[in-house]
Amino acid sequence: MDATYTIIICICIYLIILIILGLFANKQRKSNALKDFYLAGGGLGSFVLLFTLYATQYSANTMLVTPAEVVNQGMGMIMVLGYMTAVVVFYLTFAPQLYQISRKFEFITPGDWFDFRFKLPILTLIANIILVIVAINFLLSQLMAMGHITRSITDGQIPYWAGVVFLAFVVLIYESLGGMRAVAWTDVIQGVMLFLGLVGIFIMVMPDTVELTKISEWLIENEPDKIGIPNNEYLMYWGSIVLMVGLGAAVYPQVIQRIYAAKSVKSLKQSLGAMIFMPLITVVILFLLGVISIPHFVNSTGVSKDTVLPEMLRLWGSESAFSFGLMVVVVVGLLAAIMSTADSVLLTLSSIVAKDILGKSIFKNHSSEQLTKVGKRFSWIIMIIMVLVALQPKITLWGLIELKMQILIQIAPLFLLGIHAKNVTSKAMLCGICIGFLFAVITFLFGVKTISGIHVGLIGFGLNVLVCFLISKFQNKKDHHNV
Amino acid sequence: MNLKKVFPNWVWTVYFILFSFSIPWYIPKSISMQLTWGLPFWIVLCIFVIVIIALFTVWIIKRFWKD
Q: What is the share, in percent, of chain A residues with pLDDT greater than 70?
């Protein structure tokens, strides 16, 4: 049978499994309350928690960009390993305290923490608006990736529009049926497939040190910039991006909700303890796959980010029946990586809008069950709008994707300082966020990405924290004086 | 609200030092092209430091984060 048709059949089987899991999760629900739908009743064990964090954290972007950028830019891309590890380390700065308090006061959304700690509605609203902007941006990029990857792995047999529409439809179906329970269970399937496929491909195609030495020696002779230690400006950028992505990705709203959803402290500890090794497996494999792909793209310049891995997978898959099987697992795993990120973002987005925005305004007196219904309806509406936007690539917001991390990091002080700095006041936090956010947006509009090698997002974060401390100090002094 | 500190402050200093050493600013350019297991020495060192970070993380979770 033709390889493309085999891949299409496997994708169809995989999508059917996802819908069956959604139906099963629907039967397992205990109520229609917000906590049951958005946090799976707060009962995620360590295994499910680990793979739902893994599948959510590793989007198609990481999978496709890492090998492609190793081919394009060289070995400096090992910095991806640093920032994916930093994300887990930054969880530890606030997750233990946040989990405890979220259980005690039954938190559902990140906004519940903002309300609890700062008690300033305008601050919660602004923070939620930033989270919604980031989530919409993220969702749109995943939908577009669905279309591009489906077209690429099926050799154009499934067009871009069909990839976007059908995959988005499947995500909506299983998510509406089972909420977080369905999302977490499908994440386990998606995470395990991706993980096993990558490890399998790696074992199969990984060259010995002799072959690696040949590639490195070729690079030393022909493209020394790709193998040598990067220049000082790049090293500065490397350090700032580790901090920025580490901090920003640690406060993704979908990750915060997974912390709330942990069954116990033990589950959370075990899953984070295992999660810290995931970059060492996933990113190192992707990095090495990029290195061994270099000879295949010697004459190509500016290799597109969605071509390296799919092309190499097609090549490796043609070596034997076993390698073809592994290739199919990775290919479907790539789709899984996109879908698992999209479903988590959609679920979080609907919870923030239903509970924190609409639930506090036009649906103020609605019950928890009614708000769950509102959230489900909102998921369908926002997904339909996003699909329509994704189908018009000319009016897409690709450029805004870069803005995502530098505005998301402005939310990090709400968790870090909120937990560790008792003296930080709500108004100071509000001023800090506004200044950090404005700085990130203005520098983005002017096309400034770095200042002296430091990413502007991190500089905005520094300003945010500084303003926060200065105003808090001033306010506390004033209060003390008045007393 | 009284949120107890879970990890001692020195843990973050250790992380700062380890992450600083995961970036090859301190390796002389003269040895940057030396190969170890087929890869440049600085890449192997960077991966090694991240392995240390992972092991350190598991240790601090077990040592300081109580159920």
A: 95
- Three-class DSSP category at B28: coil
CB pair distance less than 8 Å for B4 and A97: yes
Whole-model pTM? 0.89
* CB-nearest partner of A265 from B46, B51, B67: B67
- CA of A81 to nearest chain B CA: how many angstroms apart? 8
B24 part of contact set with chain A, CB < 8 Å? yes
Nearest to A213 among B6, B35, B53 (CB): B35
ipTM > 0.90? yes
pLDDT for A301: 62
Residue A229 pLDDT more than 80? yes
Q: How many CA atoms lie within 13 A of B5 on its CB side?
A: 10
**Long-range CB contacts for residues A437-446, cutoff 8 Å, separation at least 24:** A437/A126, A437/A130, A437/A407, A437/A410, A439/A463, A439/A464, A440/A403, A440/A406, A440/A407, A440/A409, A440/A410, A441/A403, A441/A407, A443/A406, A444/A402, A444/A403, A444/A406
Reported as half-sphere exposure (CB side, CA atoms, 13 A), residue A46 has a value of: 12
Share above pLDDT 70 across residues of chain B, in percent, rounded to a whole number:
97
pLDDT digits (tens, 9 = 90+) for A305-357: 566 777 777 777 777 788 788 788 888 888 888 888 888 889 899 999 888 88
In whole numbers, what is the pLDDT of chain A averaged over residues?
Answer: 86
pLDDT of residue B51: 97
Look at B50 and A224 and tell me if their CB atoms are within 8 Å: no
State how far the Cα of A385 lies from the Cα of A391, in Å rounded to an integer: 10
A55 Cβ partners below 8 Å, 6+ apart?
A187, A188, A190, A191, A194, A336, A337, A340, A341, A344
Residues 6+ apart with CB under 8 A from A127: A110, A111, A114, A411, A414, A433
The torsion angles phi and psi of A455, rounded to 5 degrees, stand at: -65, 135
Phi, psi of B35, rounded to the nearest 5 degrees? -100, 140
Amino acid, res. A368 = S
- CA distances (Å), origin A421, targets A114, A149, A313, A429, A458: 14, 44, 49, 11, 20
The reply to whether B30 touches chain A by the CB within 8 Å rule is no
